[in-house]
Design goal:
- The chain is an alpha+beta fold.
- The protein folds into 2 domains: about 200 residues, 2-Layer Sandwich (Cytochrome Bc1 Complex, Chain A, domain 1), CATH 3.30.830; about 180 residues, 2-Layer Sandwich (Cytochrome Bc1 Complex, Chain A, domain 1).
- It has 15 helices and 11 strands.
- The strands form 2 sheets. It has a 6-stranded mixed beta sheet with strand order 1-2-6-3-5-4, with helices on both faces. Strands 7-11-8-10-9 form a 5-stranded mixed beta sheet, sandwiched between helices.
- A hairpin with a 4-residue loop joins strand 4 and strand 5.
Length: about 400
């Protein structure tokens, strides 16, 4: 049996728990609706930089003491920054929950942001950026979203730019933290054999609950002007992403877009996999994807191949887009896609971290927890005519942008 409870403290700190009686462990996440989308050209990367600095010492603990305090209880502490959210989280056995809560609270309330630590961490993050730039399979996705989302902040890479990373100082971080974290909503999500009232009492004990200024973001206007970008690197393979901007996951169309992506190129029975890999043998990696954000998403096709096959592979992909632009999805394809999508969603809830992330995202963006049953009903109610109508609207090849990475020798 699982029970979800929600308590609002001053309409600023939201405590959301899902009690799972069978669990002997917990996942505890402190979520902020803040990410690289809230940045500008001059401070792009600062949200991710702050994430790193949260582990570098507080008024009570050094960086080493933070790690020791968690690990001596057998727990695990980490964080991630995305384009719209930042999450600091802990996992562990039930008897370490309060200590993890207290440490996370200490980090978000009392981090020092010492200049000497900032200067050291700048070099670490610059190395992280180098790793991305040296990995075409990662780097190309940032370039793709930069290309199709233009100069909007949603197109910024989460890690930022080398120039910004090396220039941040204590004043920059404190000013940004105060504006985007200090008086904005905090979502505390705990999943496991947890007691809701206990989590609420921990929030009241360890956190100062401010009066919140609710976050407002300017809605993105989608522009799908076709474009093309070539990037030259010392690589042996040819890498490419072909795609466009589509509706975000607060849209009624989002689930249907995910179904179309599955039909197009997710899985070994998808159109692109069968055509390019199985039938023609011209691509080892070929898949479609949807990166979902609140009011916009990116729908893309990623592939890599021998440089000699790049034109053949690209032509085949655009051939499949042309077919879908005529609305030719078969009923059997749609039914298979529905089963795959529902399976993916359910499997994502089989681990506590997946449940925590799903609950947090649902509440942050919809203000409520959308049940699996609701998703199942929405899938069942999706008709073939609706899918083909949307397919014809989305898959016009003239609205697709292509980004490619080629060997420097071809330049």
């Amino acid at each position: 049996m699982n029970i979800i409870n929600i308590t609002s403290l001053n309409k600023c700190v939201y405590v959301i728990t899902e009690k799972l009686d069978f669990a002997e462990s917990y996942v505890l996440g402190f979520w902020f609706n803040t990410g690289s989308r809230d940045e500008n050209l001059k401070n792009n990367g600062i949200s991710h930089f702050i994430e790193h600095m949260m582990f570098k010492g507080t008024r009570k603990r050094s960086a080493k003491q933070i790690s020791l305090a968690v690990e001596k209880n057998g727990a695990y502490l980490n964080a991630f920054t995305s384009k719209e959210n930042t999450c600091y989280y802990a996992r562990g056995l039930n008897n370490s929950l309060e200590k993890s809560f207290e440490i996370l609270s200490d980090m978000i309330r009392n981090s020092l942001f010492e200049q000497k630590e900032i200067e050291k961490e700048a070099n670490v993050i610059a190395d992280e950026l180098n790793d991305i730039l040296d990995t075409p399979e990662e780097f190309i996705f940032d370039e793709f979203e930069k290309q199709i989302l233009g100069d909007t902040s949603l197109g910024f890479p989460v890690i930022g730019t080398r120039e910004n990373i090396l220039a941040f100082n204590r004043g920059d971080l404190l000013e940004y933290f105060t504006k985007h974290y200090g008086n904005k909503e905090l979502y505390i999500v705990a999943v496991g054999n947890v007691n809701h009232d206990k989590i609420v009492s921990l929030a009241e004990k360890y956190l100062t609950v401010p009066k919140c200024n609710k976050k407002k973001r300017k809605k993105l206007v989608l522009d799908n002007s076709k474009s093309f970008a070539s990037i030259y690197r010392p690589v042996n393979q040819y890498y490419s992403v072909i795609g466009k901007a589509v509706s975000g996951f607060t849209s009624d169309l989002y689930l249907k877009i995910r179904l179309l992506s599955i039909i197009l190129g997710e899985g070994s029975a998808s159109r692109l996999f069968i055509n390019l890999r199985e039938n023609k043998g011209i691509a080892y990696q070929i898949n479609s994807f949807v990166n979902g954000y609140s009011d916009a998403s990116t729908l893309g096709i990623y592939f890599s191949t021998n440089p000699e096959n790049r034109k053949k592979a690209t032509d085949q992909i655009f051939s499949e887009l042309n077919k879908l632009s005529r609305g030719n999805v078969k009923k059997s394809e749609l039914e298979k896609a529905k089963k795959i999508l529902l399976s993916n969603i359910v499997l994502g809830t089989e681990d506590l971290s997946g449940r925590m992330s799903r609950i947090a995202n649902s509440y942050i963006y919809a203000g409520r927890i959308k049940s699996i049953e609701e998703v199942k009903n929405e899938l069942n109610e999706t008709t073939l005519s609706e899918i083909n109508e949307l397919s014809a609207e989305i898959f016009n090849p003239e609205t697709f942008t292509q980004v490619e990475i080629l060997s420097s020798e071809l330049n």
